[in-house]
Input
Amino acid sequence: MKTVIQLSTKVIDSEYRLKKTLLHECCHVAQFVLEREFRPPHGRAFWKWARIATRRFPDLPVETCHSYDVHYKCKYQCTACGKMFGRHSKSLDTARYRCKCGGRIVYLGMFDPDGRRIAEKVPTPYNRFVKERYESVRAEMPPGTPNAKVLQRVAQIWKDRKNRSDGSDNE
Ligand SMILES: [Zn+2]
Ligand SMILES: [Zn+2]
Output
């Protein structure tokens, strides 16, 4: 079976993206040639090889083309099928959230729009405050309160506390 990889210059604007896209396409080759699975394009066979590729090249995470459209900084991957998940912040609860296939999700780190790993910021006092208080604040609110509302409430508590301590400093 003859297989040809064609890369688009529209997508490839850096050496990094070239490597990343080539690796993605190699997973399709493995899917077609070794697994004989042609449909769906990003199905079980694709993700099987994507998982193998990611293990070998952790800095070149294989993703579906669609993930180029929206850049999610935080990347997660299913340990069972290799499917990638993106979030704008480190918001995915890996202890609770499961992939559709039932697999456990692991956090891969933060990546820039080119998919390069970026160093994670050390949590600020506010970040730590949110982490500490989030659960208890949510417990006080009606069940099903959206995440954003809970965070708003936590931010308000933080602000109140800050104002209070600023006030007492001035006295
Ligand atoms: Zn693809
Ligand atoms: Zn999975």
User: Anything to note?
Assistant: Residues 125-170 form one domain. The beta strands are 74-78, 84-87, 105-111, 117-118. The longest helix spans residues 147-170.
